[in-house]
Design brief:
CATH superfamily: Electron Transport, Fmn-binding Protein, Chain A
Number of strands: 8
Number of domains: 1
Structural class: mainly beta
Largest sheet: 8 strands, antiparallel
CATH class: Mainly Beta
């Protein structure tokens, strides 16, 4: 699904022949399944790409992030386009998945957060974080792929092998 200014450009999964492309409902399920989860928020900070860990909650199809009054909230005040990514493992570590959300960030009040009806995210850092960001999920893409056994994780042969 594309949103104004955010084309579904097909960049995700474009060169992964073993990857299964995840549809929007599955991406939303994975995002919602990590209540209180940690993801990575990417944005443009003073003409430099910046990626920071954040925790989040889902409010319908949108992300809600609680933060302090630093750079993340400056980006939201400007109505900036952000990227948010989360990943995980399934099948006892044999399969990995990744979900990428691209959308517009905006500041919301505590009252607007209550109206959204979702849970309130807690800040990662033990400092006051009373600023809430809402990320409208313009484009959501995802992929699931099998993991190759890593030679570094394979135990060396024993004396009886």
């Amino acid at each position: 699904m594309a949103s104004a200014g955010l084309p579904d450009d097909g960049l995700v999964n474009s060169d992964d022949t073993a990857a299964e492309r995840l549809e929007r409902p599955e991406c939303l399920r994975l995002l919602s399944g990590h209540r209180g989860g940690v993801g990575r928020l990417g944005f443009d900070a003073q003409d430099m790409p910046t990626i920071l860990p954040v925790n989040y909650e889902m409010a319908g199809d949108d992300l809600v992030i609680r933060t302090g009054s630093g750079m993340k909230s400056v980006v939201a005040r400007k109505g900036g386009i952000i990227a948010f990514e989360i990943d995980g493992l399934e099948d006892e570590g044999r399969t990995a998945w990744s979900v990428l959300v691209r959308g517009m960030a905006s500041l919301i009040s505590a009252g607007e957060l209550v109206e959204l009806g979702g849970p309130t995210p807690s800040p990662l850092a033990p400092v006051s974080g009373d600023t809430y960001l809402r990320v409208r999920s313009g484009v959501i893409t995802g992929r699931r792929f099998p993991l190759r056994p890593s030679p570094s994780l394979t135990p060396p042969p024993g004396p009886d092998d």
